[in-house]
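ARCHIVE CARD
CATEGORY: sequence design from structure
SOURCE FIELD: tokenized fold
FIELD CONTENT:
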């Protein structure tokens, strides 16, 4: 049966003997060795194309519907100990698992000459977030794209970033890329 005319996806991965640094209480500035651990990840995504009459029929959208999705992801490191350096994977050093909620919106504009994309992540255990709005221009030929956007990071308290391996500075994004 159809569930609100949505598309659902379930994805998973299992990494065997993933090399991971060991450091005092997981602090990347105090690395003393490395080990191998198995890691399991599971993600469930709900995707829907949205028809918003007043916008979809406008001169901006030209009947192009908005794609929206929400994804819940969970990752578990087996045989966990607190000396594993997992902050690059957005784990809190006190937890062997992490979960994240991701929102994605994409809206083609002006006969797909421009594309607006919004991506937002929220890490439930570490309480970190990331917001990325981007406006892309599709050059004639549909292989070259120019992106203009902004990347913002935040968290629930002032010392939400444990190390420099986790981005913590907002920045503007200006990019030229080729898609084939």
């Amino acid at each position: 049966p159809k569930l609100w005319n949505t598309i659902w996806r379930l994805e998973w991965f299992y990494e065997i003997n993933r090399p991971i640094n060991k450091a005092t209480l997981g602090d990347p500035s105090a690395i003393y060795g490395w080990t191998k651990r198995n890691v399991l990840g599971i993600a469930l995504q709900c995707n829907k194309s949205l028809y918003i009459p007043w916008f979809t029929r406008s001169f901006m959208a030209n009947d192009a519907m908005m794609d929206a999705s929400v994804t819940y992801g969970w990752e578990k490191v087996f045989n966990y100990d607190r000396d594993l350096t997992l902050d690059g994977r957005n784990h809190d050093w006190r937890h062997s698992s992490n979960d994240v909620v991701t929102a994605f919106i994409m809206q083609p504009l002006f006969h797909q000459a421009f594309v607006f994309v919004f991506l937002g992540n929220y890490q439930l255990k570490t309480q970190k977030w990331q917001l990325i709005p981007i406006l892309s221009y599709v050059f004639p030929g549909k292989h070259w794209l120019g992106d203009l956007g902004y990347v913002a990071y935040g968290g629930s308290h002032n010392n939400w970033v444990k190390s420099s391996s986790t981005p913590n500075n907002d920045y503007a994004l200006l990019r030229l890329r080729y898609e084939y």
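CARD ANNOTATION: The first strand starts at residue 7 and ends at 23. The chain has a mean pLDDT of 88.
SHELF: design records, drawer C
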